[in-house]
Specification:
The structure holds 2 protein chains of 2 kinds. By secondary structure, chain A is of the alpha/beta class. Chain A has 16 helices and 10 strands. In chain A, strand 8, helix 12 and strand 9 form a beta-alpha-beta unit. Chain B folds into 2 domains: 116 residues; 163 residues, no CATH class. The chains are: A alpha/beta, B mainly alpha. Chains A and B meet through helix 8, helix 12 and helix 13 of A and helix 6, helix 7 and helix 9 of B.
């Protein structure tokens, strides 16, 4: 065994246990320092996100990675959890399965939201922490670089990560930006400030929105929210004035009846003077009478309207899964082929050195017998010998590489060692 | 090289633009990684051939741009094709060619149906002739640009009203930008068309005063259609200014822009198939023996 991992995800580990098991960046660095002392000569990387905690270990020959039980025990000790609780919920893999798993994780195929892009940054961060903690080595280094390369291929060659899946991001990117060219000169009005409104505001801020007003039933609540969200507070009695002046409304009140009826909106329309108004009604039940959406210059989107786009995008992503899996398999095969080929390295070195040494001896003998040869002729003969040696070695090396794709080429290596009397 | 350039025909660049348009239209049907490069390649090849053709005509036949109806239409098509290519390169995900290239092809079609006979001019009227032609060209291009933006506005507004997400690789500009383009194009069209018409009157007066060339009567179909177009563009610009601040004003302005384009198209068709003295060489006085006969 060269590679190993143990870990659990949102699918296998219950939330309370996952919360106990999670590592912050500092805790991960401490755990890896402990890993270095506990398993000297082994490589280790710890990936901890909201939805997963995974420990990757690697080592060669006499420094083979620790078995699953030891890795589970190590994680349990690091977090002060009873190993008996962790063992049944953490899965473990070795060698090729580890590579396939990491590549799938990095490409977002194993994420709660299929194809989510944040995981790439999290894998990079885990890798960086391991590097700082000096628990990386050639195996994990190549494996994580290959994982990031695979994630990039999946992102560019499939449409897996292209469609957005969150309602606020769809609202801002697909609809608000379809109406407005820029947001830095627009007025944004938040009616209520539920979780969805806050997330939408984050996207709006990223898109350039600066002028934000919060309307709430009570001015105290509006003031505290405004301080938190860097906005201007105002009260409900100014709603008509604010609606008349705003360009974009995000509404998430907990009202059981529409807050803005068609009659309420009529004077607002008069006062607006034909300026377009985008309304993101993210409340359930809705805050805006749907009839307002039929008025000229009004673009009204309810949570259901945006949810339909979300669902269509989710289905579209799922269609991309087979293409992504093909890439994962290709990259896993390539990585394993290269890994197996590493086993051949010392044998190839010895073969080359042996042929080179024999060639040099023969050349010296030849040049002694032909002392009249000029420098140019000697160089020509030397090159011919080198070419001959390279050509003679080409076929065995190609066979070795081809054999490596199917697994460690132990048979061929033994044969070469015996045929050419190579040392271990 | 010169031999190669001399063999470039209208069909060469029209075909290149048509292929680029087909590539743009295929965005609606399927995704492709190489389509963008193919589309830009054909549009650029068309533009290079188009440029070479105009330069060759200027060099070999003394047909400077705007010197004949044929060259006038081809120059208008060239400006729009260059604009389309530049916008495609600047915003690759916006299918701008889908809306601009049909107009380019229509102008090339109009060129092939129009006269290659140079407009009569003398050194004294050349400057006014150039001003008149350039202003009319600017007005026509402004109307076309406004109409293209208006069609895109309707397309985008339709998608937003149906609450559909944009298709992948088919992202339209915002309604705000399209509306501003339409509105400004209408204003520019009204001003340049009025100035173009005025410069035509001055050109006619210079011809009449100096007895240089035959003058165009007020009842000539070209004068009538240009008068109609100018009047409509001014009225449309005024209406646009008035309705801008009213509910539904944006949609009204978009439709006004499309009507302007329809009036321009009607005017061009009238020019192509109508009888006129505009831009026609003066009739030579009959020879003495013909009179005697």
């Amino acid at each position: 065994m060269t590679l190993a991992f143990v870990g659990g995800t949102h699918r296998t580990v219950p939330l309370p246990l996952r919360e106990q098991l999670a590592f912050s960046a500092e805790q991960a660095a401490e755990a890896l320092a402990r890993f270095r002392d506990r398993f000297p000569g082994r490589e280790g990387v710890l990936l901890s996100t909201c939805n997963r905690v995974e420990l990757y270990a690697a080592g060669e020959s006499d420094s083979a990675p620790p078995p699953r039980e030891q890795l589970v025990l190590f994680l349990a000790e690091c977090r002060g959890i009873d190993a008996g609780l962790l063992a049944p919920v953490l899965s473990g893999e070795s060698d090729e399965a580890v590579v396939r798993h990491l590549f799938s994780v990095a490409a977002g195929l194993d994420s709660m939201v299929l194809g989510e892009p944040q995981i790439v940054a999290q894998v990079k961060q885990a890798w960086a922490i391991a590097q700082e903690s000096r628990t990386t080595g050639p195996l994990t280094s190549e494996m994580f670089q290959a994982a990031l390369r695979t994630a990039k291929r999946v992102a560019t060659e499939t449409a897996l990560g292209r469609e957005r899946l969150s309602i606020p991001s769809i609202a801002v990117t697909d609809f608000v930006s379809g109406v407005f060219e820029r947001l830095d000169d627009k007025k944004v009005l938040l009616i209520g400030a539920g979780k969805m409104a806050r997330e939408t505001l984050r996207y709006l801020r990223e898109a350039g929105a600066r002028d934000v007003t919060i309307v709430n039933r009570t001015i105290e609540r509006a003031q505290s929210l405004a301080a938190e969200l860097r906005a201007r507070p105002t009260t409900f009695d100014r709603l008509v004035t604010e609606l008349a002046a705003t360009d974009l409304v995000v509404s998430t009140t907990g009202a059981t009846e529409p807050v803005i009826t068609a009659d309420f909106y009529r004077p607002v329309e008069e006062a607006r003077g034909g300026r377009p108004l985008v309304i993101l009604d993210l409340a359930i039940p809705r805050d805006f009478d749907p009839a307002i959406g039929d008025r000229p210059d009004v673009w009204l989107y309810s949570i259901d309207d945006l949810g339909r786009t979300c669902e269509a995008n989710r289905k579209s992503r799922e269609k991309q899964m087979p293409a992504a899996v093909v890439i994962i398999e290709e990259e896993t095969r390539r990585f394993m082929g290269d890994l197996h080929h590493r086993w051949s390295g010392p044998v190839i070195e010895q073969l080359r050195a042996g042929w080179s040494e024999t060639g040099d001896t023969e050349l010296e003998r030849l040049f002694r017998r032909l002392p009249d040869l000029g420098e140019a002729a000697r160089a020509e003969i030397r090159q011919s010998f080198q070419r001959y040696a390279a050509k003679m070695l080409h076929l065995p090396l190609t066979s070795l590489r081809a054999e490596s794709h199917a697994g460690p080429p132990h048979g061929l290596l033994d044969a070469l060692k015996r045929l050419f009397d190579l040392k271990e | 090289m010169l031999d190669f350039v001399s063999r470039i025909s209208v069909v060469c660049f029209a075909a290149s633009y048509a292929v680029a348009l087909a590539c743009e239209a295929s965005r609606l049907l399927f995704r492709s990684g190489v389509r963008g490069a193919v589309m830009v390649g054909f549009a650029a090849a068309g533009l290079v051939a188009h440029t070479a053709f105009l330069l060759w005509r200027a060099a070999s036949e003394g047909a400077v741009p705007l010197s004949s109806p044929f060259d006038w239409y081809l120059l208008a098509a060239w400006v729009l094709a260059a604009g389309s290519l530049a916008l495609t390169l600047a915003t690759p995900r916006t299918p701008i060619g889908l809306f601009m290239l049909p107009v380019v092809l229509a102008l090339i079609g109009a060129a092939t149906l129009s006269s290659r006979e140079p407009f009569p001019q003398t050194p004294a009227t050349q400057v006014w002739g150039m001003i008149h032609g350039s202003l009319n060209l600017a007005a026509s291009l402004a109307v076309a640009a406004g109409a293209i933006a208006a069609v895109m506005w309707l397309f985008q507004a339709g998608r937003l009203a149906r609450k559909q997400a944009p298709k992948r690789g088919f992202r339209m500009p915002s309604l705000e930008r399209l509306f501003e383009t339409t509105r400004h194009a209408m204003t520019v069209a009204a001003w340049t068309a009025a100035a173009g018409f005025t410069s035509g009157i001055i050109l006619n007066a210079v011809n009449k005063q100096r007895g240089l060339l035959e003058t165009v009567p007020w009842t000539d179909p070209v004068v009538l259609r240009m008068g109609m177009l100018v009047s409509w563009l001014i009225v449309a610009a005024v209406i646009a200014r008035v309705v801008k601040q009213r509910p539904g004003g944006a949609r009204t302005i978009v439709w006004l822009s499309l009507v302007s384009f329809a009036v321009l198209t009607g005017s061009i068709l009238w020019g192509l198939f109508g009888d006129t003295r505009h831009g026609v060489p003066p009739v030579s006085p009959p020879a003495i023996n013909e009179v005697a006969a």
